[in-house]
Amino acid sequence: MILTATYARLSGATNRLASPTRFMRYSARLLPWLFGVGVLLTAIGVGGGLFITPPDYQQGDTVRIMYVHVPFAWLASLGYAWLAACSFVSLVWRHPLADLAAAEISPVGAAFTAVCLATGSLWGKPTWGTWWVWDARLTSVFILLVLYIGHIVLLRAYDDDTRGQRTAAIFALIGVVNLPIIKFSVDWWNTLHQPASITLTGAPTIAMSIFWPLPFTAIGFTLIFFGIVFCRLQAAILERQARNQLAARLFASAEG
Amino acid sequence: MTHAPFIIAAYVIALGTPLALTVLAFTRRAAARRVLKGIDNGKAAR
Q: Is the full-model pTM beyond 0.80?
């Protein structure tokens, strides 16, 4: 009884929130704020990280790569969690906006994961002496990139869009198993990559004079990530409207 | 600044990628709007 009521309430909330018309209205208001505040926070974080914070006593100035590498690493996983949530909504409630959202999240997530790997590599060479090692953290993030690419490929692999969306959604949900592996890889295995310096429960193990720009870039890039996905989703909704209108016109002219 | 080329390359990639994605997203949205407007204008003309 409780389960049925919860399902009905969740289903209603999903339908209300995922209405394309409502999404277009709210996202149009939200986009300038996402980009405006996102760019401002990123600028403060980047400026502080490049010009104000002191160099690390061991790593020297290369520690400044942290202010861009860490936010992209977080967003690579967060983006995939969002993709999986949309895939779940798409499979359970068959909501078309969830399918559109999943299709728009994966290319942005893939790009952010690639940036995470590239900046990590650029940080690894001067500090570890190598561009790449197949340790658990790096490998699991590389698998995340492959999962994103797999989702993009599967979406386009079928002539029937619905079949492609369904298969890609199942694939995305299976890939969720990689997220805890990424998170705990540095604890479960002996990795070259360092363990987490920042946790939700404890204070950061980084000196505050070096740490402070990181929340700015983390929140800034997160807002920009959401802004990019929302803008792409707006474009996808408009493209679908255009396709539907063109199809309706073709149908009408064929009938007439 | 020690290892400046590594730091500069990391920042160029990290700032350039979201910038390029943003420009692409807005360009695509503007193109979709133009197509829809074209269809509406076509309807009005008939």
A: yes
